[in-house]
Amino acid sequence: MRPRIVQRMKGTVSKLPAGNASSEATLLRSVDAADAPVDSPELWIGVHIFEPGAVSLERLARSAQRFTPRVSLVAPDGLLLEVKGSLHLFGGADGLIRALAEECGAVGIEPAIALAPTPLAATVAARVGKPYGEPYGEPYGEPYGEPFNVTNQAQLIGRLSSLPLTPLRWPQDVVERLARMGVRTIGQALRLPRAGFARRFGPEQLGELDRLAGRNADLRHHFQPRERFRRRRELTYELENNEAVLAALAPVLADLGKFLQERQCGITELECRLRHRHAPPSRCILRLAAPVADVARLTELLGERLSALTLPEPVRSCEIRSGLPVRRVLASNPLWQPGEYGGSGGPEAPELIERLRARLGHEAVYGLQMLAGHRPENAWSTREPAAVNGSGTANDSGSRLALFRSTQAVPAPPPWPAFRRPLWLLHAPQQLEEIDGVPRRRGALRFFGDVERIETGWWDGGDIGRDYYTVFDIYGIQLWVFRERAEPHRWFLHGVFG
Fold first, then answer.
1. Among the CATH numbers 3.30.1490.100, 3.40.630.10, 3.30.300.30, 3.30.429.10, which is that of 230-327?
2. Model's pTM, two decimal places?
3. CA–CA distance, 34 with 169 (Å, rounded to integer)
4. Of residues 106 and 38, which shows the higher confidence score?
């Protein structure tokens, strides 16, 4: 059979003779819907779910946000999407409806879909529709009806007139009273006198008819996805080892990866809570040096933390909670590799920090920052390690990334020209023995260089007065010692040079 060709030229339709009348009418309707002018300020897609318990509305709304950011929930079995600005991205209304139906099928639901200039009209039309399938005329398609597709405000009331009042979900007594009057469709209700309708059935139903026809604004609350990820999994049997717990967390971590992918974000903190029968919940907190969204990497680091956790009792349920998502800043690799022509540290630095923290603990790995102060013990402080971007440089204006164990107090060099100071300061100055006012440590000390005098801190109660000297002991180790300027002029060891 020769295919029928339909052409539209300047408002006239010419056709080649072939085929039957039903296929011709279907094709003409699709052409008219595609060529109809879009004069409405908004276009809404209504989605009706036939089995509301099959999937949560929030999950479907998150999936629908890839079509438009303006998604509204119509509990308990519907969604609304304002899509006028998205039509050109999907090849028009038909392409967007088809893509939305595929998205719904991916999450396991069979929807009814309608397109209308007002949100209530889209919702009502979707509620009376059939499950979306291939339109008529496709050789292998299922014979489902075409979706309600109205893009012209002038055609809306005419298309709504034949629909029943049931999908408006008015109170049952209102619908029964209207039926006794012979009013069973939306068109019949719209033709009733407005004042008499409001007196008999209330202004709420009249207001709904006005919003349905686009006479009044219909404001909708937009769906906002959760800012933090939180998912709990109840176990069918108790788990006694950490490897089994990590395996039970795999589907939850996979959901976390989808959560971060939808937002194009990463996380810097992840908490795992393990609940027991009698003991308090066990907590395992993973802190990251840079935003991470890779599920495999998160699983590996969480496994390191769980391996060091001692379970007081078998685990009955597990829960994953994330910190606030952080926008990921993607960057290309630097031209020079680390160590070549002055190339600095690469993107492996955050991974090293996270692995060390997972094995040694969060407090054992930290960075340093310099402070404007002359007192050696107050010239630096610990901080979160500086994140490294794709070019291998620190994101802040502080010093380069540094990793130190917390068992050693290691200051950064002062930001101003001064006497040479040691890299290793003691936690507290150690008093030295003296013979006739001369300090000793495992024997006599040999002084080297000039003296550095520090007198400061009187404004905060931590005033000091010290004279610092560089000395060598009998083993040739270079030390940093000071003598108190006030009585009794004791000597102390404060640092060791490398």
1. 3.30.1490.100
2. 0.53
3. 31
4. 106
